[in-house]
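HUMAN: Now follow token order:
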Amino acid sequence: MKLLHIDSSVLGVNSASRQLTAGIVAQWQAAHPGTSVDYLDLAADAPSHFGPDALGIKVGQPAEPTEAQQRENEVSERLISQFLAADVIVVGAPLYNFSIPTQLKAWIDRLAQVGRTFKYTDKGPVGLAGGKTVIVASTRGGMYSTTEAGQAAEHQESYLKVIFGFFGITDVRFVRAEGLAMGDEARKAAFDDARAQITAATREAAANQDRAALAA
């Protein structure tokens, strides 16, 4: 089994989402000791945002691509091959300005390729990357899950659920710690709750992957 561990927080050792992804991966490996882990730190090694050269892979490379197009295509191919090879993807996704970090969005843009992660049919788009499990470590300074206004304001968890679903992944789980900027007591309570969520999410996701393996 292969697990892809992704962090995107720019806060380094002070990052809450990095603490949670580390906990998720540790529990997964404890349950599946033979799991191989590939690590991607998007804050340290982020792909460039889409420009004409990076977009070439989506619209068809010319017969003789330029050096810049070849270079961008190599980045996209490396990232999408890594993603497709993984059975489990653990994503650290802090809430930045109501959405995900720009580095994480740049990674997702490299994955959204016709014929690789989705295709168009006469009945609409169909995801091609099904069978994977995604566990997202979602961290937030404020409270967004408990009120209608908060849920309407966040475009982090909602976006990730939609985009991974678009790729055909139906097993998308969230381990959430929110209210982290609302005082020491609230922060401790959020982490305590998140640790309990990690135990439940990894146990349920592992069972789902085991069932899928038996059915294959």
In short: The longest strand covers residues 133-140. The chain has a mean pLDDT of 93.
